[in-house]
Amino acid sequence: MISDMNFGERILYLLQQYGTSYLKGAGTTLLIALVSTAIGCVIGFLVGIVQTIPVDRQRDSLIKRILLKIVKIILKIYVEVFRGTPMIVQAVFIYYGVSQIFGVQLGMWQSAFLIVSINTGAYMAESVRGGIISVDPGQTEGAKAIGMTHFQTMTNVILPQAFRNILPQIGNNLIINIKDTSVLSIISIVDLFFVHKSVAGALYTYFESATIVMLIYLTMTVITSKLLLLWEKKMDGAENYELVDIMGVGTQLGEERKVGL
Amino acid sequence: MSTKDELLTVSHLEKSFGTHGVLKDISFQVKKGEVVSVIGASGSGKSTMLRCINLLETPTGGEICYHGRDITDPKINVPAYRAKVGMVFQSFNLFHNMTVLENCMVGQIKVAGKKKEEAEEKAMFYLKKVGMDAFINAKPRQLSGGQKQRVAIARALAMEPEILLFDEPTSALDPQMVGEVLEIMKQLAEEGLTMIVVTHEMAFARDISSHVIFMSEGVIEEEGTAEEIFQHPKKEKTKEFLSRFRGLN
To answer: Is 0.80 surpassed by the pTM of this model?
Structure first.
């Protein structure tokens, strides 16, 4: 009987009986977190890009300026609403709300991806906006000066740097999502936390099951943050660079010929 | 009224930020092959004037005609115009996410629509000209100020502009790096590139300019050939400004 076992034996017992359930739950958690963070990043980038479109009072038509203003306001509301309410409430709101208002029954999975994505998107939008304005404006001028449009400047110069700048933020969001998908058990997603609740409830092994689940969550987040650090390092590239023609160094203009003033 | 070799005609240019007038009634012409130096105290509006020419600042009045067309007209395709008018900045403004070579290629490919091979060839040509061809794999953060500015010049040249604007290109450099940048600019001037140079390097302005403009408090106080301005200045303000640099002569 499980009540006769000590702590270690109970954990072993749970792992033997429910090991695959825990792993499947962890898989579900990871899948939702990864996919939704990726979609959330895309949303965040789109919103952040629109939010930072400059307006030229002289050259842009009135209609374009008004439309842009309206879109910016809508996006601002989106960010405020989804950043300012708990995801667990959003989950209930969307899962039940969509079916009542639109008469469409969203599946559990669709709802899960939708909720975590738009939640992440709202957070990322602000990070992306910050990432964009943190790239020094001189580079924007440099790009303009060689004839780049705003769009070309963004895609070639600003966004790659903004992306690098907010990579730690993206990692943060991924880790938060790995943990926070646990609230989706409220709409019956069988994630790691749902498995825990079922196992613990059936056998009254709250502490033991929680220990297992804690360790699984911790393993996932620690590995994730290590991988992200590696990615950051890779993006930064080598500290040193190779000179193409070593002989050329000694004959730099500045060293060979000084201008006499 | 405009003749064929008149590249740029600035007439009655005005710029104000709010109620603060920075430029008042600025008029001058730049002909093909001319090197125009703009000198004057800090805050006299030199840089603002240059930035207006490239439309990085929107003029609040007057006209800037390029090949006879007023580019302050809202219908003008600004990026296409800027592709013809290069600019070199005080703070270099290189793209930090790209190598030296990529910095000199991206404009050619994305803006001018050139093929990669052609763009690379041209970038290498101009990088060689500024003595930075050994550094094509370096990122801007790995270079010294003088090296960055030379790359910035190569980047501007790679677009093969009709006119190149220099906004205090040596002001952010350590004294020992000033020479390497000025040497390149001198070489470009001798090759006949049309240039407008905002500078505090008086000896340099004196030696290479075909025309010198002295600005003070947002207006052109005096203009003329290098000899007229530096040897025989007429206005008191010009004399006073230049007297501070007499030691150089």
So the answer is: yes
